[in-house]
Amino acid sequence: MTARIDPYAVLARYYDGAYAAMKDLIDVPFYVGLARRARGPVLEIGCGTGRVLLPMARVGAAIDGVDSSPSMLGILRRKVEREPPDVRERVRTHDGDMRQFRLERKYPLVTMPFRSMQHMHSVEDQVRALSTAAFHLHEKGVLAFDVFYPKFDRLDSRLGEEVLEIEWADASARNRTLRRYYRKDAVDKIGQIFRLTFLLRTYEGEELVGEESESLSLSYYTYPHLRALFLLTGLEVVEQYGSFNRGPLDNRATDMIFLLQRKA
């Protein structure tokens, strides 16, 4: 049997430290608020290491988390073990591909947070992923997800250049700093896909003592593209926003955030 290759194995090891250092991330309160409002179990598709999942569980939501990355799930499961018993009892994790997995349960809230849909690179895969989410909704259940609002004037900017994205202290070693860079390697404007390489560098003082890298491809979406996907998957918009502060989805938007229900 061939071992499955995990394309997120390197990023998983640095994931929590990097995103804890990003103080402008304000999506967690938005999703926690939806979980409170749902008053029932939650399915999170693309749960990663639990950056969004665990805060929802801590406020009382029973939650199933699904991810295709064994590395991400392994970190989440170790984190769950350190939670109080009541939180541990509310969390279940599943290894699964968002394009095809099925659970024998329906939910008042299904979430695909932190741009999980941008890991779907073809229309066929995008339809399958949204169909998976729709399959798990109660009759009046809500699907919530977000993607970034594309900045078309910057598509080709800094192509091939290494850009420092975030820096944080290594909690496991004194005087050690971690820095995450990204390099935009290519832009496919027909397929609407960025190809990126992330470089994770470790420094002692200013001396480079370690480096790892991982390449990913991320889709970007236009608004009409998303509306077409909703039509194809029997979903309709009930709320939409351009920011996690619930600002309007207009030319000033930073994100495209949708709350959807299955059509009657």
The biggest beta sheet is recorded as: 7 strands, mixed
Give the overall silhouette.
globular
Overall pLDDT metric: 95
The total count of helices amounts to 7
Specify the CATH class of the largest domain.
Answer: Alpha Beta
CATH architecture tag of the largest domain: 3-Layer(aba) Sandwich
Q: Briefly note the structural class of the backbone.
A: alpha/beta
Fraction in helix = 25-40%
- Work out the number of β strands: 11
Low-confidence stretches: none
Walk across the major sheet and give the strand order: 3-2-1-4-5-11-10
Helices and strands in order, then pairings?
Blueprint: H1 9-20, H2 27-38, E1 42-45, H3 53-58, E2 63-67, H4 70-81, H5 85-90, E3 91-95, E4 107-112, H6 123-135, E5 137-148, E6 162-169, E7 176-188, E8 193-204, E9 207-219, H7 223-232, E10 235-241, E11 255-262
Parallel strand pairs: 1-2, 1-4, 2-3, 4-5
Antiparallel strand pairs: 5-11, 6-7, 7-8, 8-9, 10-11
Helix pairs in contact: 1-4
Account of the protein in words:
- By secondary structure, the chain is an alpha/beta fold.
- It has two domains: 183 residues, Rossmann fold (3-Layer(aba) Sandwich), CATH 3.40.50; 68 residues.
- It has a seven-stranded mixed sheet with strand order 3-2-1-4-5-11-10, sandwiched between helices. Strands 6-7-8-9 form a four-stranded antiparallel sheet, covered by helices on one side.
- Strand 7 and strand 8 form a beta hairpin.
- Helix 1 packs across helix 4.
- The model has no long low-confidence stretch (mean pLDDT 95).
